[in-house]
Amino acid sequence: MSEQVTRQGASDAVAGLGWRYMLGTLRAAVPVGSLFQGASVAAQAVAVCGDEADEHLSVDLRADRVVLTLQTRGRATVTAVDVELAQRISSSGLPTGPAGLQMLEIAVDAVDIGAVRPFWRAVLGYAGDDELTDPAGRGPSIWFQQMEAPRPQRNRIHLDVSVAHDEAVARVEAALKAGGRLVSDARAPSFWVLADPEGNEACVSTWQGRD
């Protein structure tokens, strides 16, 4: 079984190759000019990964970009194999980069997480015990934040937008310029808590500060 890599270790191992560590994955985008070109890029990435592609590589093919994701299936984490595959893909000549990468999480605040989690798992058709994930790999993951007491005066669901660690400050600044306000940066660079003009919250988060 391949060794799990820490967040810091994964980020450091691919930092100069255009890949970014995000929510238990390594991700990179390759710009393309058409779906036909994108299909060629996807095929090249699969060929580079060889027999390990099925257990590690996912491809999101669009007309303007191909997003490559590496994660060890069945473990929902980055291992040494994923790092090696990222290095091999970039070394093959594909122009991997971080432009436009982001992932979305939805956080549900709950007093009794054990009571509310089964509802969300069933209504969404998701899988998992602690964090719920879409088996098809399309929808955002759902996680549950412990509350000590009900808070009827504020929202109970907020969005977590996970971005590449070196894009986070720019994203926060853009949100503030767009009318948002900073609720807290006490846990930055792990996450910044922001709110819209009516108090609805969103967190801009990165992998940093979580190991």
Automatic annotation (TrEMBL):
Pfam families: Glyoxalase_6
Domain Glyoxalase-like per the UniProt entry, residue ranges: 106-204
SUPFAM superfamilies (UniProt xref): Glyoxalase/Bleomycin resistance protein/Dihydroxybiphenyl dioxygenase (SSF54593), PCD-like (SSF55248)
InterPro entries (UniProt xref): Glyas_Bleomycin-R_OHBP_Dase, Glyoxalase_6, PCD_sf
The protein's name: 4a-hydroxytetrahydrobiopterin dehydratase
Organism: Paractinoplanes ovalisporus
Lineage: Bacteria, Bacillati, Actinomycetota, Actinomycetes, Micromonosporales
